[in-house]
Design goal:
By secondary structure, this protein is of the alpha+beta class. It is built from 13 helices and seven strands. Strands 2-4-5-7-6 form a five-stranded mixed beta sheet. The protein is extended, with a radius of gyration of 34 Å.
């Protein structure tokens, strides 16, 4: 048993297995904890929406009370009924979960206590709203006053739920960090142990090498140390037994040296092939990924045979995930080209900016379809034709507009355009959360996201840096102004026909 554990080979196996186990444990624990954190984030988002619903319902109630005409009253009443139903649906989702809304039921006892209190206030609040619709005109003003007071109470209770969920999320993140630190410490000890073992091997090998040098000089009386129970000691003993036969093995040794040299050359060639592979890997990823997306689309369209609605839904998720991954890969490649100065623009004349904006705004409408966000446009139909790279110009506007639509939860996103002298001026204004002052300096830094961006949990932090670089590559400017809590406005100025851009002949 002592000989077994003194074996350097066994010790190295143990270290490798330990390191592998630590990596597996860290991955499993982190995935589990991150999934739990993601579930809490979806719950916090739902609770935040419920918090907003408190004031939304109060606003609809006041509009209902002040409405004139039977048609207006019926319309606002329907809106109020829909909002009440939506609030009840979200409240039930927080307690029991909702697959369609992607909300996992709340199971934490502390949060459930707050949710119980919130449910009680919601029941009273919704009862008041329903009473308002049935009450006479004389009683509505008094009920409306109670609704205003109760909306504040409901908002405060919902805010407690949101705050507690956010606190739980931070605790889960701290657990992830603590687990990572613990595994890091154990890994460090394992690495130190591996270094010690390797040092012992190197020391023994050097001793054997010194003995071999003496033997090679012609002194066959030289002997290697034989103490110890590990492999190097066994090698030394075998080495000593070989000394008497050294003269007859010289030729064989030369042959082995030649074999070792060929192995070294082969290894170097393999290393070069590996380097070339790693250099092109990110490009090669796009080909199979595009195949996955396209074949999935073929199946969805029924080209490969009939598919069920459930299969179509799953395949559409595969397509969306593939397109998202492809977009991330393209962003990384674009940023790499920009930083290395190898980005090439395909310049054309007579590009219609209205066509580009129509494409971009269609994407914006899709992003705001399920939110109380209005997409306002102030774009002349006769914007002048411009010079540039059509694909990259679309990329600039798509990044800016989609960002505004993604982070704006209510209010509006307004896109304006106008021609001034030899330039086109564009603005994208939103009523989102705005950008904190401490985050504003890093908006255009690669791989950095604002506090709001991190809370959304999406993207790579490359959209705005790429858009800014592409705008400047066209001879234009991109900047923004933002007030936290009020919204953000991005400004884009592009030359109609920049002299620094020459069309492809």
């Amino acid at each position: 048993m002592i000989r077994f554990f003194n074996s350097l080979q066994i010790q190295l196996y143990i270290i490798v297995l330990l390191l592998t186990g630590l990596v597996v444990v860290e991955v499993v624990l982190n995935v589990t904890l991150i999934q739990a954190a993601d579930s809490s984030i979806s719950q916090a988002d739902a609770a935040s929406l419920q918090r907003s619903n408190a004031y939304l319902l109060a606003s609809l109630a006041r509009r209902f009370t002040n409405a004139e005409g039977e048609r207006d009253i019926e319309g606002i009443s329907q809106l109020l009924d829909d909002a009440i139903a939506r609030a009840r649906e979200i409240e039930d989702a927080l307690r029991f979960g909702h697959a369609t809304l992607d909300i996992v039921r709340i199971a934490d006892p502390d949060v459930l206590l707050q949710l119980d209190a919130l449910d009680t206030e919601w029941d009273e609040y919704l009862a008041l709203l329903e009473t308002l619709q049935l009450a006479s005109d004389d009683d509505r003003e008094a009920i409306l006053t109670e609704i205003d007071q109760q909306s504040v109470t409901v908002f405060n209770f919902a805010d407690r739920v949101v705050s507690l969920l956010n606190f739980k999320i931070e605790k889960q993140r701290e657990r992830v960090q603590q687990v990572s630190k613990l595994i890091g410490v154990v890994t460090l000890f394992a690495i130190v142990a591996a270094i010690i073992i390797v040092t012992r091997i190197v020391r023994s090998v050097r001793q054997l090498s010194h003995t071999a040098t003496i033997l090679a000089s012609g002194d066959l009386s030289a002997r290697a140390a034989e103490g110890g129970l590990n492999e190097t000691a066994q090698v030394g003993s075998a080495f000593n037994s070989m000394a008497s036969r050294l003269d007859g093995l010289v030729g064989e040794l030369e042959t082995q040296v030649d074999v070792a040299e060929k192995a070294r050359v082969t290894a170097e060639q393999s290393d070069q092939v590996k380097s070339a592979f790693l250099a092109s890997m990110s490009h090669e990823l796009r080909t199979p990924l595009n195949s996955v997306i396209n074949f999935s689309k073929f199946v969805v369209r029924g080209i490969m045979g009939p598919v069920t609605d459930r299969q179509i839904e799953t395949l559409n998720k595969v397509i969306a995930s593939g397109q998202h991954l492809l977009s991330l890969i393209n962003d990384v490649l674009d940023m790499s080209k920009i930083e290395s100065g190898s980005l090439t623009l395909f310049i054309e004349d007579d590009i219609n900016p209205n066509e580009i904006l129509d494409t971009v705004l269609a994407s914006g409408e899709a992003l705001t379809a399920e939110k109380p966000v209005a997409l306002k446009l102030d774009i002349p139909a006769d914007l002048p034709m411009m010079r540039g790279d059509r694909k990259r110009l679309t990329q600039i506007f798509l990044n800016v507009v989609s960002n505004a639509c993604k982070f704006t939860q209510e209010g509006f996103v307004k896109v304006t355009a106008k021609a001034e002298a030899n330039t086109l001026h564009f603005t994208v204004q939103d009523t989102g959360p705005g950008i904190r002052k401490e985050d504003q300096s890093s908006v255009f830094d690669p791989f950095k996201q604002t506090h709001t961006g991190l809370s959304q949990g999406e993207g790579t932090g490359l959209g705005m840096p790429i858009s800014k670089n592409l705008t400047e590559a066209h001879g234009g400017r991109l900047w923004f102004e933002s007030t936290p809590g009020e919204g953000t406005t991005f400004f884009i100025i592009l030359p109609i026909k920049s002299e620094m851009l020459q069309p492809v002949s």
